[in-house]
Amino acid sequence: MSTAILALSENGDLQRIYDKWLTRSACSSDSAEIGSDRLHLKSFWGLFLICGLVCFVALIIYFIQIMRKFYGTANSKSISIGEGNSRSRHLQRLLSLMDEKKDPSKREQKRRKVDRILSENDKENDLELERSLKRRQTQLPIEGND
């Protein structure tokens, strides 16, 4: 690497790079061009538009899912309770559906099952270790009766 720097300094390329990028006069003379290269809020309008649209679509999908769930439970409960439900009951049911937590996924259930099996195996290993220690203690002759 030092030989490459030495070759650049011998050719005069190193001084030219220094003058171009590190001197103050080069930076101050190009101030008009730098202003046009700066990023402003207007530069990101497309990114903001895409993010806003994606969030809006996700929100619509969420509300469609909630409404499908609401009408599914409303139909089943209206048969059992009767047709005379008030608006407050509907609103309360809708809010409870929005606040409802999801059941654990199958992946979490599998993980819990594997953890349970591993803990049972650990218990079995601990019991086996205790049994082997007790066998060794009973097999050892009592020293001191000589």
Automatic annotation (TrEMBL):
<feature type="compositionally biased region" description="Basic and acidic residues">
    <location>
        <begin position="98"/>
        <end position="107"/>
    </location>
</feature>
<keyword id="KW-0675">Receptor</keyword>
<keyword id="KW-0812">Transmembrane</keyword>
<keyword id="KW-0472">Membrane</keyword>
<protein>
    <submittedName>
        <fullName>Glutamate receptor 3.3 like</fullName>
    </submittedName>
</protein>
<dbReference type="InterPro" id="IPR015683">
    <property type="entry name" value="Ionotropic_Glu_rcpt"/>
</dbReference>
<feature type="transmembrane region" description="Helical">
    <location>
        <begin position="44"/>
        <end position="64"/>
    </location>
</feature>
<feature type="region of interest" description="Disordered">
    <location>
        <begin position="97"/>
        <end position="119"/>
    </location>
</feature>
<keyword id="KW-1133">Transmembrane helix</keyword>
